[in-house]
UniProtKB/TrEMBL annotation:
Belongs to the sigma-70 factor family. ECF subfamily. The keyword Translocase does not apply. Keywords: Sigma factor, Transcription, Transcription regulation. Residues 27-86 form the RNA polymerase sigma-70 region domain. This is RNA polymerase sigma factor. InterPro entries: DUF6596, RNA_pol_sigma-70_dom, RNA_pol_sigma70_r2, RNA_pol_sigma70_r4_t2, RNA_pol_sigma_r2, RNA_pol_sigma_r3/r4-like, WH-like_DNA-bd_sf. Pfam families: DUF6596, Sigma70_r2, Sigma70_r4_2. The keyword Transcription regulation applies. Residues 195-295 form the DUF6596 domain. Residues 127-177 form the RNA polymerase sigma factor 70 region 4 type domain. It comes from the Bacteria.
Amino acid sequence: MPEAPARTASATAVHRVVDAVWRMESARIVGALTRVTGDVGLAEELAQDALVAALEKWPEAGVPDKPGAWLMAAAKHRAIDTFRRTENLQRKTAELGRELVQREQEDPDWAAALDEVVEDDVLRLVLISCHPVLSREARVALTLRLVGGLTTDEIARAFLVAESTVAQRIVRAKRTLTAARVPFEVPAGAEFTARLGSVLEVVYLIFNEGYSATSGQEWVRPALCQEALRLGRILAGLTPGESEVHGLVALMEIQASRLRARVGPSGEPVLLADQDRARWDRTLIGRGLAELERAERAGAGLGPYALQAAIAACHARAATVEDTDWPRIAALYEALAELSPSPVVELNRAVAVSRAYGPAAGLELVEALADVPALQGYHLLPTVRGDLLEQLGRRDEARAEFQRAATLTRNERERGVLIGRAEACARQVGA
């Protein structure tokens, strides 16, 4: 392999490094491999093979100085091996294989060049994953898998659907793209506009996974937020007249401004009401407010992302939680619920209503969501209910809700906070 190991490490530590590198590099690796192979399914398989090789070799040899280049080189060598041993390839695939072998002979450092991926390779990967030949659900699931590097479980939790359903969508999507011979390119005109809605949804879901990780030991994954922001900014540059693109970028900029304040000294979650607002990034807030203005100028009315950005702007402009314009936030959530109905939006509206008009008013809205099927495994439903019950002094009921929420979340940091709140309620009941 091309890089000398920087150090040796325990298998557990190396596995954590491999996971982190995969999160950061997988989209670029899959994108670059798709560009040269023309097959997104094959590209992901080659990238996964390289990941397995890293898990096998890095614990013994140490983590390379440039792990992304190492993974790219490993994937490239597997591509060459695949092309060499496959006898019945179609003409185009055979030509690609010969090109890969020739490049290896002429330029042994080709992998290093591929590591410097063309800036919009990841965007191409998003757009091919959002091709109209796929269903909406398949587009989003495949892009989260390829671009976000998320597991099927994490995607399933983002959609509130079964993991097996997501796995089937991804497999079928890759097969469909291969069969349809979808070109690896940025579409133009009406075709680009047609894909834009699902692309924006994908980008925001990637951002959300970074902003509030569904599982694991980390509460936030800033690299995913940064990647989503990068994609959003590229889209905004490509579509300056699209209000919702600017709305999404505004929303992500403002939310990203809170990332440093959302994590405590030991990595524990810090909720909005407890955050040190001096740690909010004013530069990102300024950029977000400017994007929100562009969204307002570009469209006749605010769409779902721009409405959410307007909600985030209310928080960003407030010096304290008490100074927040909660009635306006509640009204914006009501408008969002009319434009884009969702039980999650209704749950957020209940929180805003509780702040604006009291916990009893919010709890009434939450109770109406108790039997909604999509929220049955959603940990934030009992979390919000527990918070409102605690404010109303019904601490024994609140404790039960926090305990239930703790069993539903897959994020270890969040689980610790919920258990702590349940224990605090129990102490107050026993006092």
